[in-house]
Hints:
It is a single chain. This protein has helices at residues 2-18, 24-31, 36-43, 61-80, 85-94, 96-112, 118-121, 131-135, 140-145, 153-166, 170-188, 193-220, 226-231, 242-251, 255-261, 277-295, 304-328, 333-340. The protein is an all-alpha fold.
Amino acid sequence: MLALSRYSYINARLRAKIGKLLDENFLRSLAHMQNIGDIYVKLSETDFGRVFKGSPEPPDAVAASYALGRYEAGLYREALRYLKGNVREYVRSMMFRFDADFIKNCLRLWYKKASPSREFLESYTCFKYDTAKLLNSRTVEEFILYLHDTPFIDPLIRKKDLFHEKKSLFPLELALDIWYYENLMEKSGLLSSDDREIIKKTIGLEIDIKNIEGLIRYRHYYNLPMGDAMGFMIPHGHSIKGGMIRDLYSSGSLKGIFGVLAPGAPLPDIRDEKKNLAAIESILTALLKSSARSLLARFPFSISVVIAYFILKRLEIKSVGLILSGRHLDLAPETITGALNV
């Protein structure tokens, strides 16, 4: 009865929203439109109409990206109105991704001594930040201290020496990702056993995917030794464990990885990881989407629908963002649809 009262209303609302997600044919039609204005007109007929409502003309790629981010954050806030207790706290923890991304962007601007866009200053984070102080920090230590009222200060303090050693923001950005996923797993301990199992598998798959994408980059773009690369793995992956990661790094073969993530599915024909990184990421995204869809067939009065909705909605928003960016860059429709995996 407790699970029924906790999830019946919010799951009914979110299932209805899932039923209105843009399908592949619609996304493909958007990708083939040659005029950016026509794309916005078509989107205005969907829930994305409220994203760009009031814009006198089609926004540029940067403005569109921030508008989509505010839209996604708003979806979480809408859901929080119908959630209580530990489930509400867990969904709020999912929103910390926006804070982590905001801090990463601040770090990049600070490191490059660049000026932020107007849209960037209109943040949609859980915590409040003094952006001017962050960007005008004289040292990384000063930057980190301005985060004293947030949970992000500790992971950054632990990695600041590595930042100086490597002369790279990468250890700091990775520290934020690791904290985010570790916090999600810790918060899941307050939920029911069914909910914990759903989170362990689904969020664990998301971690697996991030680790695979990271390993490919570490090997081909950063040329890191295996020991260093292993130290950059995000914990709590569901299927991809340490031994398998070491095998992948040393052999360079993804066959075993895809066999574990999608047993029985046809193996993708990818002979050159570096050349086909975008294709690999597209395949991994499709796996995550399939996993989220499978949650809808589970016991209806659990966190499954909530998790599925936010994963599917994030992937939909990402697809719309790719289409808009591709059209702003005047890419061929085939290139855009290839990135979308539709």
